[in-house]
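User: I've been trying to design a sequence by hand for this structure and keep getting stuck. Would you show me what you'd pick, starting by listing the structure so we're on the same page?

Assistant: Good idea, let's start from the same input. This is the structure you sent:
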């Protein structure tokens, strides 16, 4: 329900639904469900650019994913990617890079090529924003290589190749202006 409300732009009721879901999961002792509700809350706050509230929700979600009996390393990787995106939005590059690195560690350990490739593409965009074009190209090339081995990652592979072409074109244009 929270996701549907969020998609419809009803952020206030999406937050209420997420909080109700979280309370229900907490009362049932369902830490995994509670962490998913917190991810929904964080995403809703992020869409409203309420970065501090989004970070608090995502960080609490990570704590729950770490503390569950069955440690959720895929969920940790995805939530850490969201945390990194917020830090990148705030231009806090050191924290963004640290969160992206942790995200990749979890996703690659879990053998999740598509989410890891998405994180690598996010890293590439952050690096490009910082003017680190060569590093950005290397990151997106790593994402493309990872996706080529995936059977179901064709749409993400297409987006990675588009990003690669855009970065390559921007690098060539930058170097031709310098010459």
């Amino acid at each position: 329900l929270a996701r549907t409300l969020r998609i419809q732009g009803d952020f206030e009721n999406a937050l209420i639904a997420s909080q109700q879901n979280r309370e229900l999961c907490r009362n049932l002792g369902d830490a995994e469900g509670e962490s998913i509700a917190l991810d929904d809350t964080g995403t809703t706050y992020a869409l409203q650019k309420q970065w501090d509230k989004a970070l608090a929700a995502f960080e609490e979600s990570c704590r729950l994913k770490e503390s569950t009996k069955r440690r959720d390393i895929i969920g940790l990787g995805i939530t850490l990617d969201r945390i990194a995106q917020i830090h990148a939005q705030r231009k806090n590059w050191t924290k963004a890079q640290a969160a992206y690195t942790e995200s990749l560690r979890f996703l690659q350990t879990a053998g999740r090529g598509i989410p890891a490739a998405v994180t690598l593409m996010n890293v590439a965009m952050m690096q490009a924003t910082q003017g680190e074009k060569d590093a950005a190209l290397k990151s997106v090339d790593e994402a493309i290589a990872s996706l080529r081995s995936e059977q179901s990652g064709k749409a993400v592979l297409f987006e990675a190749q588009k990003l690669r072409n855009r970065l390559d074109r921007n690098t060539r244009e930058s170097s031709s202006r310098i010459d």
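That's my pick for every position. To get oriented when you compare it with your attempt: The CA atoms of residues 29 and 73 lie 19 Å apart. The first helix runs from residue 2 to 7.
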